[in-house]
């Protein structure tokens, strides 16, 4: 099972919101969370830490552009895709981008189109400096190659350590075999052996585990490893 990517849908159209939540729940690797207004959406963004936010322009308690600004002021770095009607397309596009949105989609739309936009923004976001993942007591910032603990102390990582953590994180609860991890992190290289991987795992545990002899985050499974986040 891969780690679930949460999509927050903020829209007062009950039928559309529920339909999108259900469709994301059915999509492998995704999960949907709905909010009927800006206040609920701001709270959900704080509690759920969504990977992407789909935000309607027209909300009952707040203008969607103001809600977008508040999300950014709240520290939300996730991509925000705004939903707008065709009649106001150009005007809303400019307002949305000015408010901090990443993209907009015209209503009515096909789910496949929205999903494709979301996947594209996820790929871009993961490669950006804004991508942050939670691993135990740490914030993992792969672009900066660091883990930041609750006291804001930084644990510096090598390129390979960063790649190991990122691949294990994306694999979720599924243990990753040593050969697979070698292939994904080092690529095809006949000179690299599982001993190389085990050495990197050992050094990584020295950095992130309170007791490297009894790891709680980077767990050894039969034939491989997984992250306990």
TrEMBL record:
Domain (OmpR/PhoB-type): residue spans on this chain: 130-229
UniProt keyword list: DNA-binding, Phosphoprotein, Two-component regulatory system
Phosphoprotein as UniProt keyword: yes
Highest taxon, organism lineage: Bacteria
Domain Response regulatory stretches: 6-122
DNA-binding segment(s): 130-229
Residue positions where 4-aspartylphosphate is found in the record: 56
Protein name: Mycobacterial persistence regulator A
Organism of derivation: Terricaulis silvestris
Lineage: Bacteria, Pseudomonadati, Pseudomonadota, Alphaproteobacteria, Caulobacterales
